[in-house]
Amino acid sequence: MTKSVAREPQRRNARSNRARILATARRELGRNPDTTLEELARAAGVVRRTLFGHFPGRAALLEALAEEASEVLRSAMAAGAERVGPAEPAERALAHFVLLMWPVGDRYRMLLALARHDLGVERVAEILAPARAEVTAILERGQRDGVFPGHLPPAVLSAGLEAMTVALLEQVNTGALEDDGTRVATAQLIAAGVPEERARTVVEDVAPTVTAEGVADE
């Protein structure tokens, strides 16, 4: 047996341990941002040395979570871009985007708390930059086409919608809200200026297509 063949099971085991640690960190840090690495190791079912072998400190673990969130976000946006073209009405494009992003935000909502602790607002802003640009572009197009009223500049309205999403994700953290994204998407359309009945109709029409994509379902 060659050394490379002998090492392969070890590599697979290491990858499995790393994935399990990150999944545990997403769950436990979402419950309590002050969870220690020792507590995470126990929750993940690995010894302390194994966790520290992958992540030598809290900062390394949080950066790995931030990078993972960034990759999932980019992947979800790329998948959405393949289905939503520039000819798609802006209200449908916004509903599609919110429905697509909600599972990503739900999965990584612990980053909101960590931003206030030790991840850093700048790092979170870096992760969210592509999403912010996309929403601003949709709102800009919608205002130009008369789909959304122009009561606020697109970038300002985008920031307001993001703040609403953050607030709703925090309500998920507290257990006050459970949603598959449809109520949030409806609320976002209404906040963007779409009449309530029309917003509900658009979301009901778009939601099945987004569910079929299955983005971020891990």
UniProtKB/TrEMBL annotation:
Keywords carried by this UniProt record: DNA-binding
Domain called HTH tetR-type: residue spans: 15-73
Keyword Acyltransferase in annotation: no
Pfam families (UniProt xref): TetR_N
SUPFAM superfamilies per record: Homeodomain-like, Tetracyclin repressor-like, C-terminal domain
UniProt DNA-binding residue ranges: 36-55
Gene3D superfamilies, alphabetized: Tetracycline Repressor, domain 2
Domain of life from the UniProt record: Bacteria
InterPro entries assigned: Homeodomain-like_sf (IPR009057), HTH-type_TetR-like_transc_reg (IPR050109), HTH_TetR (IPR001647), Tet_transcr_reg_TetR-rel_C_sf (IPR036271)
Coiled-coil parts of chain: none
PROSITE patterns: HTH_TETR_2
Xref: PANTHER family: HTH-TYPE TRANSCRIPTIONAL REGULATOR RUTR, POSSIBLE TRANSCRIPTIONAL REGULATORY PROTEIN (PROBABLY TETR-FAMILY)
Protein name: TetR/AcrR family transcriptional regulator
Organism: Streptomyces thinghirensis
